[in-house]
Amino acid sequence: MSIVVRDVREHELDSVLALNNAAGPAILPLDAARLRHFFETAEYFRVAERDGTLAGFLIGVGSRAEHDSSNFHWFRERYPDFFYIDRIVVASRRRGGGVGRAFYADAQSYAELRYPQMACEVFLEGANDPALLFHGSFGFREVGQHVMAEVDVRAAMLMKQLCSYAWVQETYGEALPKVPWVTPPRTAAASAALAQRPTGTCP
């Protein structure tokens, strides 16, 4: 009955793609090539298992990533350093069972060691009050709105301050302890992106 969050495996990409494209209008569709690009470059690409089956996934990138999302660029034009949640998908049969909160707790544990803020967006078309409530209860606040020209959808742009980041930087700098839960970036490209980041403190 427990939820296990771990790095995605290559053989699971077809299942992840099916989950994404069955998620409905709140999630933009993907094709296999774009998902493969995420697999090869995304700093954070993890899945959740519940009862031995795939329950969802979350993809995140740092602010220095080569990422073509207009929402990502909206944040990058305004904020120098952040961890961006590109998408989170939970299988319909698992919604409301804690998978989303498990993902956000895991993503924050990763991000707060490396970034002062987390960013994401919620589409405002349709009945998305539950998504806004979920993010608000997790500490995200709206910092603006953006219309995605490519799909003509308005999104609420959300940020969360990660104030543990300042303490981590003051205490460890970039030399984080070598312990299992301090997961390193998944790829060499992600490591290079982290190396190019400016240092800073949480406002």
UniProtKB/TrEMBL annotation:
<feature type="domain" description="N-acetyltransferase">
    <location>
        <begin position="3"/>
        <end position="164"/>
    </location>
</feature>
<dbReference type="InterPro" id="IPR016890">
    <property type="entry name" value="UCP028520"/>
</dbReference>
<dbReference type="InterPro" id="IPR000182">
    <property type="entry name" value="GNAT_dom"/>
</dbReference>
<protein>
    <submittedName>
        <fullName>GNAT family N-acetyltransferase</fullName>
    </submittedName>
</protein>
<dbReference type="Pfam" id="PF00583">
    <property type="entry name" value="Acetyltransf_1"/>
</dbReference>
<dbReference type="InterPro" id="IPR016181">
    <property type="entry name" value="Acyl_CoA_acyltransferase"/>
</dbReference>
